[in-house]
Amino acid sequence: FAAVYTPIWIVVFGAVVVFQWYEDFDEWTYLYFCGGVSLPFLLQPILFPHGFGTASIKNPDADRPLLERYSSKANVWIAIYSLIGNYWYTHYFYSVLKAKYTMPSHRFNNVPIAMYLATHFYFSTYHFFSNALLRKVVTTYQPGHMRTVLFCSVVVVFAYFTAFMETLTISSYPYYEFEDRQMAYTVGSAFYGIYFLVSFPAFFYFDNDIDNPNTNNKNKVTLWDTVVSSCGHGMMIMFLLDFVRLYLDIPLVVGVMPPLAS
């Protein structure tokens, strides 16, 4: 499903940025637009549990109860991760990189609520691609030190690439500002990449045995396991971000957005 829907949301979202349709957006438009774009991912476990499988390649999720479907648990994992990222991590960007959202918006902990929704479809796509890359490594090479090195290298390179490309592709959007945009591209991308150093391998191994016929009920991943996994890895990311902040000796301000230097 992600492979089919990702090009669609990228074209739609890209058109809004390229043609500057956002200039006519108010806080409700942002909310409806980002919510609408995220809905196909959120509703996929309910409306399209089979994904876009064919008669010869059937998605096992179609035969599972709603709460046991991989797509349901993956959505919960990404949704919690997106919530943590916006509620907490965004303030590291405010404090460390002096970032600032200036568009009209409804806010929750001084972060536009539309960004919580946008993060869901962004992160769903990122983790679809990271899973594909890491699965290729694991299924192509035999276990050993070299495969481990390759696996870790793919995580590091794709984490920075993902962070840099997102920063670059939204650079023309004027309502996400930085004091030093060049620093945002370089240091900021590395800072943002910390998210994915943790979440890419975490999401790859999450519920990895769901299609293994030898998995018994005791070892099945539940929705509560999903919540704990996402929250736990979210805390790991927060520690890493805070270690960087402490090293740079920059105060963390939560809930109040620091003004840009004039």
What features would you describe in this structure?
There is one protein chain. The protein is mostly helical and about 260 residues long. Helices cover about 65% and strands about 5% of the residues. It has seven helices and four strands. The chain has helices spanning about 1-20, 25-45, 70-95, 115-140, 145-170, 180-205, 225-250, and strands at about 100, 105-110, 110, 175. The strands form two sheets. Strands 1-4 form a two-stranded antiparallel sheet. It has a two-stranded antiparallel sheet with strand order 2-3. Helix 2 (about 25-45) packs across helix 4 (about 115-140) and helix 4 (about 115-140) crosses helix 6. The protein is globular and about 55 Å long. The termini are far apart.
